[in-house]
Amino acid sequence: MFKVIFLMGMGLLLAISIFTPGRAQKPSATCEPTPRDYEGPFYKPNAPLRASVGQGYWLTGTVKSSEDCSPIEGARIEFWLAGPSGRYDDDHRATLFSQKMGSYLFESNFPPPYGGRPSHIHLRVSAKGYKTLVTQYYPAAGHTKAIFDLVLMPEN
After folding, report:
1. What stretches of 20-156 show up as alpha helix (H) in DSSP?
2. How far apart are CA 16 and CA 7, in angstroms?
3. Which of 15, 18, 81, 85 has the most CB atoms within 10 Å of its CB?
4. Which of 38, 29, 52, 63 is nearest to 147 (CA)?
5. Does the structure show a pLDDT above 90 at 19?
6. Which structural domains are found in the chain, ordered by start?
7. DSSP conformational letter for 101
């Protein structure tokens, strides 16, 4: 267990994190599920296993259970997005799996807006015992990286 102690002196506030032995804390009671979003007409199954489909934009996060916020290892995450030309193609599709603590890291080009749609990256996330999630991530203009946690709901 960690405790944070705040010290103040000479006009400075200092936070110190101190480890104290004890039982590991359980994850918080529940996590809000990631909102579902439109799959769109460009999804194709069986995208290549890879973590990069371009350069310049990094999306990272953790796949978690909505039940207890615990990380989900081995979740299948499929990505598809428009390439720099504004068109979907096989070069901008990828599949990867979440790591031991549920983490993932994906690199792409910054998705361009097209046909009145804002910049976005499609994601389809599946894991044993959980409902499949289809959603989209909308990156902020001018940014090169973001954190997007993916919270799945149990099947039951």
Report:
1. none
2. 8
3. 81
4. 63
5. no
6. 57-152 (2.60.130.10)
7. T
